[in-house]
Amino acid sequence: MTEKETAVAASQWHLDIADMTPGTRIEGVYGIVNPQVSASRNGNPFLKCILRDATGRVNGRKWTIGPDLLGTLTRAGFVHVSGSCENFNDQIQVRIEAIEPAEIDADRLRQLLPASERDPEEMFAELRTILESLSHPSARSLADAYLADAAFIARFKQVPAAISHHHAYLGGLLEHTLSLVKSADAILPLHPGLDRDVVLLGLFLHDAGKVLELDAERFEYTRRGNLLGHLVDGVVMLETYAARARQAGGEPLSADAKLALQHVIASHHGKLEHGAIKVPATPEAVFVSRLDDLDASTRMALDAVGREDGPVQGFTDPVRGLEDVRLYRPRPFGDG
């Protein structure tokens, strides 16, 4: 057993998926995706699934299974696995000998799933500072209603901004939101006709519904996310938190201000074919939608070219979220 295999805990092996090679034994905790029972050529049932950690994904197969195994694994986000790595069709596959559900804490979660490199508490402190600068009392009361909800904030700090495409890692939603709010705070003085409170609150809340749409531990969409989505939930949530702010004694949000914020949430995807409920129809909604797309597209482009990992050459594979364009990777002025 190598030093790398003991990186997660001294009492438990964990070989990063990116480091798996044929013949290597594994024993440790991994995320599990899409467990299914299939039939082999001779008709015997076997388990197939995807195992993952922060470094990648790998197919897993268990060739003998009991009758209750699938039901147990379907409810699990993480599993303890022992087995060995093998080559199948020129790809690594894990031959599973034993598998059972595993419980993990928040620290282990960030070891087993992709996570933001930034500390979530530091990012949240920056976001709170900007929100405290809102000028209208009713805007501050609404922000405080969200910030006072410990369950909402805990999920807001944890969930990704997306399952794929941009900021698709733990803490991604908070990182994306902070980037937007900081960018807007810098740009807004150039556009004094925009309502600063509506823009900043709109950016804070535009993806708030993702706390219900995304399951951080399973790294997948929830049933609610698949059936409703974060735009619908974001609009409904604003009604709830506006009522909470009023009940807490804060200045009530005017009907016009509430509608303006709900429109920002409903329209921030920009186009109906991109999932918007409405096309942006106020200056603030246009600003939020374009800035959101800029931040998301830039993050996708930078992740695709991988410049932050060192010198790079050539073109990327087609980037799905950017209309399948193949991006040129090198820095224009070199890496010197």
Briefly, what is this?
This protein has about 325 residues and is an alpha+beta fold. The protein has helices at about 70-75, 105-110, 120-130, 135-145, 150-160, 170-185, 195-205, 210-215, 225, 230-245, 255-265, 285-305, and strands spanning about 25-40, 45-55, 55-60, 80-90, 90-100, 215, 220.
List the helices and strands and how they pair.
Layout: E1 25-39, E2 45-53, E3 56-62, H1 69-74, E4 78-88, E5 91-101, H2 106-112, H3 120-131, H4 137-147, H5 150-158, H6 172-187, H7 196-205, H8 210-213, E6 214-215, E7 220-221, H9 223-227, H10 230-247, H11 255-267, H12 283-305
Parallel strand pairs: 3-5
Antiparallel strand pairs: 1-2, 1-4, 2-3, 4-5, 6-7
Helix pairs in contact: 3-6, 4-10, 6-7, 6-12, 7-11, 7-12, 10-11, 11-12
Describe the structure.
The protein has 336 residues and is an alpha+beta fold. The chain has two domains: 17-107, OB fold (Dihydrolipoamide Acetyltransferase, E2P) (Beta Barrel), CATH 2.40.50.140; 114-303. Helix content is 40%, strand content 17%. The strands form two sheets. The protein has a five-stranded mixed β-barrel. A hairpin with a 4-residue loop joins β6 and β7 (220-221). α6 (172-187) packs across α12 (283-305), α7 packs across α12 and α10 runs antiparallel to α11 (255-267). The two termini are 39 Å apart. Mean pLDDT is 89; it is low at 1-11.
Jot down its keywords.
336 residues; alpha+beta; OB fold (Dihydrolipoamide Acetyltransferase, E2P); 2 domains; five-stranded mixed beta barrel; two-stranded antiparallel sheet; 12 helices; 7 strands; 17% strand; disordered N terminus
